[in-house]
Amino acid sequence: MAFLALSLSAAMAQDTEPKEILLWPNGAPGSEGKAGTENLRITEQGDHVISGVHKPSITPYLPSAAKNTGVAIIIAPGGGHSELWITHEGYNPAKWFREQGIAVFVLKYRLAREKNSTYTVDKDELADIQRAIRLVRSRAKEWHIDTTKVGVMGFSAGGELAALAAMQFGPANPNAADPIDHQNDKPNFQALIYPGNIGRLEVSKNSPPVFIAGGYKDRPDISEGMANLYLKYKKAQIPAELHIYSNVGHGFGIRVSNKGAVAEWPRQVKIWLGDIGVLK
User: Fold this and answer.
1) Cα–Cα distance for residue pair 178/173, rounded to 1 Å
2) Would you state the CATH architecture of domain 2-275?
3) Cα dihedral sign, 39-196-216-258
4) pLDDT tens by residue, 149-173
5) Is the pLDDT of residue 1 over 80?
6) Domain ranges within the chain, ordered by starting residue
7) Could you identify which of 21, 87, 128, 174 might form a hypothetical disulfide with 109, taking C-beta atoms 3.0 to 4.6 angstroms apart as the criterion?
8) How many other CB atoms sit within 10 Å of the CB of residue 30?
9) At residue 6, does pLDDT exceed 80?
10) Strands of the chain, DSSP E
11) How far, in Å, CA of 223 to CA of 213, rounded?
12) How far apart are CA 106 and CA 199, in angstroms?
């Protein structure tokens, strides 16, 4: 745990924040005419919580050349599809994994369950994460990324979204007018951290390997659902790893205040990436 605490503290000490990159610079399909500004609230614990997203984006956290492993992760924060808890489920994980030599891209996606939203999970939110995967692959040379080592990570509602990206993916289109669509959007691996709406998640023989983690004290549909999802992957003979931490519930993410075994989950992801041959 000391290793994680030191790495996290070092990562959070960096003052320079990267700038976000719009997924569709000319406007996202389905967001035409939506000009509202994003909303930001800050909790008493210092978490940044975002809503009102109409211009989906990724914020890159790129490792130094000396540490770079060629691995990339797109992170989808949670928030019940009505907001994004983007600090402990976005920026903090991004900084930690960047220190491990992994390029991380924090996804700011549109929200299907926000009040008066016209977006849906399966259309607009899924399009956002698929676009993010294609965008990262399209700039792989610039960012020194191996296009065969691009995965997704999601927390809570973002975990559902990451899992959907691992269920529904499309091939590259070399004839597309948009060069980003020359890339495919299948993740090479997925890390689902206390994912929501688990019952709808299906597994196929083409599903990428999965890492699942959450809390024993989470609500039953998640704490029990994670075990059921693992069994689906086991039955399909897709590599899967499951961690259920006994003393926590929902929403732990990465916080300096995390104590005990749950504080080690990021390091367990790193070890798992080595075990499946992604990280060397």
Assistant:
1) 9
2) 3-Layer(aba) Sandwich (3.40)
3) negative
4) 999 999 999 999 999 999 999 999 9
5) no
6) 2-275
7) 128
8) 16
9) no
10) 21-22, 39-42, 48-51, 57-61, 72-76, 84-85, 103-108, 150-155, 190-193, 210-215, 240-245
11) 9
12) 26
